[in-house]
Amino acid sequence: MDTNLNRRSAIKGILAGTAAMTLPTGFSALAMPKVETDITSNFLKGNINHSVARWCFNDFDIENLCIEVKKIGITGIDLVGPKDWPILKKYDLVSTMCNGAEINLVDGFNDIKFHETLIKNYTEMIPLVAKAGYKNLICFSGSRRGKTDEEGWTNCVLGLQKLIPLAEKYNVTLVMELLNSKIDHKDYQCDKTYWGVELAKRLNSENFKLLFDIYHMQIDEGDVIRNINENHHYIAHFHTAGVPGRNEIDETQELNYPAIMKAIAKTGYKGFVGQEFIPKNPNKLISLKQAIAICDI
Prior knowledge:
Layout: H1 3-14, E1 49-53, H2 62-72, E2 76-80, H3 85-90, E3 94-98, H4 115-131, E4 136-139, H5 149-160, H6 164-170, E5 173-177, H7 193-203, E6 208-213, H8 214-220, H9 224-231, E7 235-240, H10 257-266, E8 272-275, H11 284-295
Parallel strand pairs: 1-2, 1-8, 2-3, 4-5, 5-6, 6-7, 7-8
Helix pairs in contact: 1-11, 5-7, 9-10
Keywords: Isomerase
Pfam family, one: AP_endonuc_2
Protein name: Hydroxypyruvate isomerase family protein
């Protein structure tokens, strides 16, 4: 079967109706694909719950982003904090991966000197997430700074165990993101699936899981589908992006996203897949529609 042909056909379908969008200054209508019919969110198959990372579309204010993603059929926005939750609610969108309790990506739970601040931040944020009706709250291991795997696991357990009872009480899931340490986040400790899974096993709670970033894990370990199949019980969320470059997830990069999405769906996963790529196309909404088409298996 010609997978690329199928992918192009899907993209052609979901791009229908795009011609009516307002184009950014300097972007020619001649560059847009030829469209034939108006496609709405009803086109989506419903096998994948779609979201998008806020930071990748920071040139849209949050309200306009909500309006545009609703048109595509996206039902959630990742990495949105409490300040913007009322706007998401206005448009019946979910904050699919809440943030705002973390210090940053490098100062995390693997270092006890950050525990006091982190425990205070997360103790305040967990009830807010629950009150808003949301589920997932992101967290990070932090950089190794010379720590062994065992030291990192031990320190993360010490910190996170103080928060797990509160997360369980409020039915909030603390979700640690897997990030590559080869290209983007040098020295980050939770940089392999096995590392995050081992931490989840030690914590032994349904209220701690992993954010499996497909882009990051392709760079640091590959074997994406096998790792998803073997460890899906520990995964609460997925992120996408093209490899190499973190750009569009189309034929210009090496990952076969339709196959990955089929593998995810086959596990019975019911969470969200968040688009977290940096568009090269001046009209970022076209790239976002393409990504949804590719992933909507």
